[in-house]
Amino acid sequence: MSNSFPQVVTIAGSDCDGSAGLQADLKTFQAQKTYGMSILTAAVAGNSYGISNSIALSADFIDAQFQALASDFQIKAVKTGMLTDQATIKCVVSNLRKYNWPNLVLDPVIITKHQALLLAADAYQTLVTELLPLALIVTPNFFEAQKLSGLSLKNDTEIQQAAQKLQQLGAQNVLIKGAHDNPQQKVVRDYALFADGSHLWLESELIPTQRVNGTGDTLSAAIAAQLALGNSLKDSIKIAEDYTHQAIAHEIQVGHKYGPINHFI
């Protein structure tokens, strides 16, 4: 039957070293046994040491990619990654509304795990007011959740309050990824709050490694893939969390510093 195989699309930037961004998403989609497609928003020149250059694609070309996929394929889930600037976010929002693809997983890509700010003020505001309400689930890292909620997240209560604030901003479901920057830390705890008011803590062993590039991309991509396969959101999160943890735990030696996780696991 035409278009019967589960299809997922990532709307993200290209990381030329393959560790994160669109490349990490596509590797994850394949590992989850779904067919991955991509809408390119930007191209980044970088490696395991860092990023040296980047360029944003035009709104016209992003429009063309949306139209090309929508005219042929049956998209079952979508995830977003790097959206670069306000014009890109507005373009993506317009197309998501136009084509109405289901199961949008929003990885906000506002602040890196090294606390580098990635969006200008106007782009950040557009993401919050226009893109966030379209998402089935938003998956901020610890520092992104701090910025979005205005809370320090110093304890479980504040993390739960932050998730509630994100729902008040328009997110249906929220997954806040726990901090992992304390040398004495033994576990990582993520928190999920669902539209029906139920919630879930997910705990895993903290793996002491610098091979963590693409972790956030991989988690949100795996959630999208599992949704495309027909799993519930709760089950999709649990499967994605386990896959991402295993990808970190089973290192591959690529690059010199902040290397990629192991999507082959």
Automatic annotation (TrEMBL):
* First-tier enzyme category under EC: transferase
**Reactions performed catalytically:** 4-amino-2-methyl-5-(phosphooxymethyl)pyrimidine + ATP = 4-amino-2-methyl-5-(diphosphooxymethyl)pyrimidine + ADP; 4-amino-5-hydroxymethyl-2-methylpyrimidine + ATP = 4-amino-2-methyl-5-(phosphooxymethyl)pyrimidine + ADP + H(+)
- The superkingdom of the source organism is Bacteria
GO CC terms: cytosol
Listed Gene3D superfamilies: 3.40.1190.20
In Pfam terms, one family for this protein is Phos_pyr_kin
| Gene Ontology molecular function | ATP binding; hydroxymethylpyrimidine kinase activity; phosphomethylpyrimidine kinase activity
Pathway the protein acts in? Cofactor biosynthesis; thiamine diphosphate biosynthesis; 4-amino-2-methyl-5-diphosphomethylpyrimidine from 5-amino-1-(5-phospho-D-ribosyl)imidazole: step 3/3; Cofactor biosynthesis; thiamine diphosphate biosynthesis; 4-amino-2-methyl-5-diphosphomethylpyrimidine from 5-amino-1-(5-phospho-D-ribosyl)imidazole: step 2/3
Q: What is its EC number?
A: 2.7.1.49, 2.7.4.7
Q: Which UniProt keywords apply?
A: ATP-binding, Kinase, Nucleotide-binding, Thiamine biosynthesis, Transferase
Please identify the protein, giving its name as recorded: Hydroxymethylpyrimidine/phosphomethylpyrimidine kinase
The organism of origin for this protein: Bombilactobacillus bombi
State the encoding gene.
thiD
